[in-house]
Write a structure and sequence with these properties.
By secondary structure, the chain is an alpha/beta fold. It has two domains: about 140 residues, Aspartate Aminotransferase, domain 1; about 240 residues, Aspartate Aminotransferase, domain 2, CATH 3.40.640. Helices cover about 35% and strands about 15% of the residues. Strands 2-10-9-6-5-3-4 form a seven-stranded mixed beta sheet, sandwiched between helices. Helix 3 crosses helix 4. The longest helix has 19 residues. Bound molecules: pyridoxal-5'-phosphate (PLP). The site of pyridoxal-5'-phosphate has 14 residues, from helix 3 and helix 4.
């Protein structure tokens, strides 16, 4: 007889809950924030430029613009790409809604391309199929931290005169053919939300190698205002003068958040190493279990993984994803699902999107959950996740 799982009255693998993601803040981070709080500048101060220089160093990009969050980064990237009413923006449904909402913010239409069923990233072939004369940009998401097929997608964008925005909210530190993400696409956006590899509480950034795009991003972050004489349409009235030349937003980040992110970036190599170790341990533990499918990694991507996807072969199990998810929760492994296909959300339904658009994405959604993955997980935490997963597989496996 198989052992009793927690949801059926057995004992959980752990006594205390283990979440799927968690920030790691050390004394150096706290000191960096306190230093700013004691300084003259809480916003618009020197910590912003300092963070931007550090981001250029880490990503290899020429320019970086730090903003209030990853969603703001996507919004101003779309604006800088010239996305507007009547345009279409191609993205993946397996992402956080912000990757598509940025098109809606600009009055454009998000168009969903299907994923590659093995890597779970947007399929270049599907991008090609979705291009129309109205397509203006592609928002390619490095889902879980694995780089999208950048060479092929860049080629498609070049051939069709499209701007490539890489949504690297998950992939800070990932290399594509040895080059860090952030230096490859026309623009790359980052998020520093607490579950991400590096955090500022909230925070985001756009990187680019193009100076004109950089200048525009700077203006869009701050109301569309410039203090640069050459960018003004009118003559300066005097030393106090600044001019709003276009409609922008207040997407500024505070100096204390910037200082926190910069301090965290100093630990990026440590974070990367531990995340990679945990992914390797999971992959090793699951590789001989036929009921578990492991995400394929393309050779070009040296991935710093943000999420670890447990994908179930439901045809071999006597349960559905919801039952497995609930059973993991009962074992005190607080898994989550990334992501609900964006067009399943009722807001997207109200815009006329219907199920059936992207069959590979929809199948993936039915079979997945994200296992805990964060820097400060102990070996025991990792072992508990593996034990709980294996216990449930043994229980639900078709005999
Ligand atoms: C792929 C992706 N894009 C964009 C975002 C938005 O980032 P933020 O939460 O910083 O606005 C997220 C964050 O959850 C994300 O996962």
């Amino acid at each position: 007889m198989s052992e009793l799982i927690a949801i059926k009255g057995g004992s959980p693998v752990r006594e205390t809950p283990l979440g799927y993601g968690k920030q790691y803040i050390d004394d150096a981070d706290i000191e960096a924030v306190v230093k700013v709080l004691k300084s003259d500048f809480l916003t618009c101060g020197p910590s912003i430029g300092s963070l931007e220089r550090k981001l250029c160093e880490v990503t290899g990009a020429k320019y970086a613009v730090a903003v209030s969050n990853g969603t703001a980064a996507l919004h101003i990237a779309c604006m800088a790409a010239g996305v507007g009413p009547g345009d279409e923006v191609i993205t993946t449904p397996i992402t956080f809604a912000a990757s598509a909402n940025c098109a809606l913010y600009c009055g454009a239409k998000p168009v969903f391309a299907d994923i590659n069923p093995e890597t779970y990233n947007i399929s270049p072939a599907s991008i090609r199929e979705k291009i129309t004369p109205a397509t203006k940009a592609v928002v390619a998401v490095d889902f879980t931290g694995q780089a999208v097929e950048l060479d092929e997608i860049r080629e498609i964008c070049k051939e069709n005169n499209l701007i490539l925005i890489e949504d690297a909210a998950h992939s800070l530190g990932t290399l594509y053919n040895g080059k860090p993400v952030g230096s490859i696409a026309d623009m790359t956006t980052f998020s520093f939300h607490p579950v991400k590899t590096v955090t500022g509480g909230e925070g985001g950034a756009v990187t680019t190698n193009d100076e004109e795009t950089y200048r525009k991003l700077l203006r869009l972050r701050a109301h569309g205002v410039t203090r640069v004489q050459e960018e003004m349409k009118n003559t300066s009235h005097g030393g106090w003068y600044y001019e709003q030349t276009e409609l922008g937003y207040n997407y500024r980040i505070t100096d204390f958040q910037a200082a926190l992110i910069e301090s965290q970036l100093g630990k990026l190599p440590l974070f990367q190493k531990r995340r990679k170790e945990i992914v390797k341990t999971y992959n090793e533990a699951f590789k001989d279990i036929p009921e578990i499918l492991i995400q394929k990694e393309i050779a070009e991507s040296d991935t710093t993984r943000h999420l670890y996807i447990l994908r179930l072969d439901l045809s071999a199990l006597n349960c559905n994803r919801k039952e497995f998810f609930d059973a993991m929760q009962a074992e005190n492994i607080k898994v989550q699902v990334h992501y609900i296909p964006v067009y399943y959300h009722s807001h997207y339904e109200s815009l006329g999107y219907e199920k059936g658009l992207c069959p590979h994405a929809e199948k993936l959604y039915d079979e997945i959950m994200s296992l805990p993955l964060f820097y400060s997980m102990t070996d025991k935490d990792v072992a508990d996740v593996i034990e709980a997963t294996k216990k449930l597989i043994r229980y639900y496996k078709k005999k």
